[in-house]
Structures are given as C-alpha cells and as structure tokens.
Specification:
By secondary structure, the protein is mainly alpha-helical. The chain has helices at 5-29, 31-55, 64-86, 89-108, 120-142, 149-165, 169-189, 191-199, 207-210. The two termini are 60 Å apart.
C-alpha cells in the first residue's frame, strides 16, 4: 500500500530532524564515543530483532540489521536532540533546515509501491506446492508411456473410482492430467475402439472396447 502525501512528508521531516539530532549527538559525545554507542546498541538489538523475525509469521520488517541500525541511530539522536534544544534558536533552525531538505529529496524521488514480503507460512506453502508439483510430474512422466493399453485401462478405472470417492483440488488436477494422457494413448493405439467407447458414453471400464484390436 502506498503512503499518502501527508504521511510521506511527515516521515521525511522526521528523518531530517533525526539526522540533525544524530549529528548533534556526534558533536556532543565525540566521534569515538558515538561510534562505540552505535556498535553496542546495534549488537544488542540485532540478535533480538532476528529472533523475532524468525519466530513471527508476519514480521513488520524485512531486515533485522535495518531495525538494529535504526535503534542505534535513535539512541544517538536522543542526546543530540537535547543538545539542539539547548542551542535554542540556532538548534531549531538547523533541525528545520534538515527537515526541509529531506522533504525536498523525498518529493523529488518517484513514489514506488513497496515490495510485499511473504510471511513464513506463505513461503512454506510455496515450497510445499513445488514439492507436490514435482511429485505429480514424476507420476505423469511414468505414464509417458511404457504402460500397455491394458494397464492404461486399469489406470483409467482407478482414477474414475478416485474421483467418485472424492479428491482434493491437488489430486483432481493430477488425475485430470493422467486421464488426458490415457485418452491420448487410447486414441493413438486403438482409434476404432476409442470411438466405440466414446459412442457408448465413455463408461468407467474402457477395456471392453479397447482391448480387442489394439496396436500394443
């Protein structure tokens, strides 16, 4: 879902103010202390964010490192924002300038729809579906087609029974492909018997019509 214009401006302005606070925090603490603070907070937050992302089906973020980086920057911003307030009008003007700069940059960048990250459950379903399709393809490949016409007639009768007893959508799809292969083989190997079988209404046991004058 795309962000509204007002929300985008608000987020960009907030990032600008946060950047001003981070810069002021570096000036307040010094480069070395600020770097140590960032590393410590990142090292504490990143494992926790990674665990939450792993155990949650619908994690609200796609990268644990990004969450840890944002947390470290936020911790550095707090003393920096306090320092900006202590500077009075100069600090407020600096924050407003950076906020306006970030808003202009955001408005200049084309708006793109965010990529939706599938949940763990959805990824599992995709992998399961791929495994099932591979199993179906192996079954179908086995029918192309070393089976005799007698065996194909038996397969047709078994699939008719399976459909009568009920089958889930995946099984119905596999059965439909198997029966299509059987029909192609029936017509190729014994076209006369195949036509007689169709004229009789295609009963569940095609062997009565196909086993008389078959080519195989």
């Amino acid at each position: 879902m795309q962000l509204s214009w007002v929300r985008r401006v608000g987020i960009a302005a907030g990032l600008g103010v946060g950047t001003a606070g981070a810069l002021a925090g570096v000036l307040l603490l010094g480069p070395l202390a600020a770097s140590i603070l960032l590393v410590v907070v990142f090292a504490l937050v990143w494992p926790l964010a990674a665990v939450v992302r792993h155990v949650t089906d619908d994690a609200p973020y796609s990268s644990a490192a990004l969450v840890a980086g944002a947390a470290a920057a936020a911790v550095l911003c707090l003393p920096g924002l306090v320092r900006l307030l202590a500077w009075g009008a100069l600090g407020m003007v600096s924050a407003l300038i950076l906020a306006a700069l970030f808003v202009l940059i955001d408005l200049a960048v084309p708006d793109r729809a965010p990529r939706l990250r599938p949940s763990r459950k959805q990824r599992k379903l995709v992998r399961l579906t791929e495994t099932q399709l591979a199993a179906d393809e192996e079954l179908i490949a086995s029918l192309q087609c070393p089976l005799s016409i007698e065996e194909l007639c038996g397969v047709w009768s078994e699939t008719a029974t399976q459909l009568t007893q009920g089958a889930d959508p995946r099984d119905r799809q596999a059965v439909a492909e198997v029966r299509r292969i059987c029909l192609d083989e029936f017509e190729r190997r014994n076209p006369d018997g195949f036509n007689r079988w169709l004229d009789a209404g295609a009963p569940a046991n095609p062997g009565r019509y196909l086993l008389g004058n078959s080519n195989n």
